[in-house]
Amino acid sequence: MDFNWDVEQQAFRSTVRGFLAANLPADWESLAHGPGSEVQSTFSKRFCGELAKAGLLVPHWPKRWGGRDADPWTAFILAEEMWEAGEPRGGQYMNVNWIGPTLMRFGSEQQQARYIPPMARGETIWCQGFSEPEAGSDLASLRTRAAKHETSYRISGQKIWTSYAGHADTCFLLARTAPGRDGISIFLVPMDTPGITVRQIPSLIGEGDIHEVFLDEVEVPGGALLGAEGQAWEISRTALSLERVGIPRFALAAKTLNRAVAALRRSGRFGHGAIEQAARARAACEAARLYSYSIIDQRVHGIPTGPEASAARYATVMAERLVGEFVVEHAPEALSDAGDPMLKVHHQRAVVAGIASGAAEIQLNLIATELLRLPREPR
Amino acid sequence: MDFALTPDQDSLLSAIDKLATQFATKPADFHGFALVGRDLDKELDEGQYYDIALVPELGPLSAAMAVERLARLPCTAEIALSMLVRPQLSGEWPRPLALVEYGRPGRFVATAKTVLVIDGEGIGIVQPSPAAIEPAPSLFAYPMGRLKEGVATTRLSNGEAANIRKWLRIALAAETSGLLQAAIASSVEHLSLRKQFGRPLGTFQALRHRMAECAVLAGGVRWLALKAAGTADEADAALAALHAQESATRVVYDVHQMFAAMGMTLEHPLHLWTYRLKALLSELGGRGGQASAVAQHCFGSAPV
Question: Strand, coil or helix: what is B108?
Fold first, then answer.
């Protein structure tokens, strides 16, 4: 067991930091609000293109798909630095983390050839069509229907709280092809397909982040089906296991805390109460960091990700909450556009920490059953 | 960064687990507060386990792993300070070690051969005569003792005191980690077996979620404690001790709620972990003391 970064890992982190210093505009921190906004979506395509040219967009992907087979530590160091900087990749972090790898595993040759190269070049934005008005945590109850018509499918239904849909090129869409949990399938649907209507939902997170997506007899060819009919549960479990520790939220939380503390110290207001609260938050950030590292280490050693990923996720939720509460109590001016803009960015993004990619309470259920081995709840 | 055990660590932990097996259950006729593991102490001493940190292939990180494993046992011995703090002292200081803060009773003081004394910023050290120490009756599940007033100590240099304080924090975090895991495991067993309203308590979501949160906290304490032992960094030590005391405060309350009246008895072993955790909550200044250290080492504040 070794808690130190090796020389190569340190050098890679320096390279990423150097890239960020050279490629983020001076006013980036003021732009970083609204990861799905038009400004950020446009910026992210330019930025990810540059990342790709520098070999820093998908280094952990196979060479065949534009990567260099770098290990999971490389991917996570990259993710830490990006998220800490305010995630200039915008919604494209999803491509890098799980959509690309999921297509590599389950996609047809045609799907891979069509969708993976643009991801590796940083040219494309995806959204994930999972939640519906009646299917949030209870995803298996989703109602969006994909009816087969000869060689194509016609999809009708509604998705909601869909991140990045306003500027997305393609949707990773879950729809029902038969009754029951095993009747859910995944379709890769171009967002300009006739019958799709997107409505932005004003949100606490920032401009352009969440949407309703209406699907009215959206016709897609049979080749849009990912994997087999009814394989959605298996595929999305793989995707979620990659996503659960996909965002190193603790990195921006710790940076936010440092900045809030530095401002308090400069103004002579870092007294006992603030010290204790800040220290607790910092410890929670570091606990979340190590938890997440333990999952990455499992990936490095080829150990299948188990319920520890839920524990890592929940530790991150705890850390985000403590940092958010610290800022509200000790640096409230940041939420009124005074002071450090990154504090507001963090606050907007931390709102979703316990909700996106599986509610925190679902993680607690998983931890209770799979990690602690408590008897299951009756259904 | 590599979280896999080395072959030496793996062998060490296997040996410790094997040794610990014979001490894994509370004797049925023991109904006291502190179950002192004299035979455990003897076996660890004879097996030279107290010197793990000095073995180049093992070092302090392996010692912290051993402390954590052994703290899970219902019985207690002076392990953490011997394994993690004593190797840091310059000169030969006999074990067992104990810590006295501000004249209060401390763990293992009545049997200590070496006592560290914290009073303000400095740390003193002394090999007390038998007349200078006495047992102190206590609710805590450690054998508590008192150092009589007026015992002269040798003051450690500021540099050595800072280093010892850091390793005291790491020892505290490693011990807390093991105690938390054992208290949680005991609670999970109870919640899986005990039925009310016709089904196991562990099927009720209100309890499941609380236990899951406790497990997440305990896991975080473990990682922070091991990292601090691995890096020997002041900031890591402060973070580990703070998260340990913060988490223990919450977990001790929650696990007793899980057991209800059963956990109030001295027949059940729960208190052998929770009332040790309670003893650790005040050490080294408690959460306020650790927070000051975090502020100093992570945020660059002047010592408070």
Answer: coil
Domain that holds residue A132: 127-230
Name residues whose C-beta falls within 8 Å of residue A366's C-beta, 6 or more positions apart in sequence: A307, A310
Write out the two tokens for B122: 């400095």
Q: Is A286 an 8 Å CB contact of chain B?
A: yes
Tally of domains in chain A = 3
Asked if residue A288 and residue A210 are part of one domain, the reply reads no
Q: Is B195 at the interface with chain A, CB within 8 A?
A: no
Q: Which residue has the tokens 């495991």?
A: B185
Q: Is residue B275 part of a domain?
A: yes
ipTM of the complex: 0.96
Residues of A whose CB is below 8 A from B192: 373-375
3-state secondary structure of A229: coil
Pairwise CA distance, residues B230 & B223, whole Å: 10
- In this structure, is residue B206 part of a structural domain? yes
> CB of A109 within 8 Å of any CB in chain B?
no
What's the rounded Cα separation, in Å, for the pair A202 and A200? 6
Computed on alpha carbons and rounded to an integer, the radius of gyration of chain B in Å comes to: 19
Domain count, chain B: 1
B5 to chain A, any CB pair closer than 8 A? The answer is yes
Query: Rounded CA gap, A292 and A298, in Å?
Result: 10
Residue A341 makes CB contacts below 8 A (sequence gap 6+) with A29, A30, A32, A33, A334
> Would residue B17 count as lying in a domain?
no
pLDDT, one tens digit for every residue, chain B (304 residues): 999 999 999 999 999 999 999 999 999 999 999 999 999 999 999 999 999 999 999 999 999 999 999 999 999 999 999 999 999 999 999 999 999 999 999 999 999 999 999 988 899 999 999 999 999 999 999 999 999 999 999 999 999 999 999 999 999 999 999 999 999 999 999 999 999 999 999 999 999 999 999 999 999 999 999 999 999 999 999 999 999 999 999 999 999 999 999 999 999 999 999 999 999 999 999 999 999 999 999 998 765 4
Residue B191 lies in a domain: yes
CA distance A50 to A92: 13
Q: Name which of B203, B226, B230 is nearest A376 (Cβ-Cβ).
A: B203
Q: What is the C-alpha to C-alpha distance for residues A202 and B273, in angstroms, rounded to an integer? A: 50
Domain membership flag for residue A376: no
Q: Tell me which residues of chain B, numbers 30 to 59, contact chain A at a CB-CB cutoff of 8 Å.
A: none
Which structural domain, as residue segments, surrounds residue B219? Answer: 159-298
Contact present, B86 and B164 (Cβ < 8 Å): no
Q: Within a domain: residue A258?
A: yes
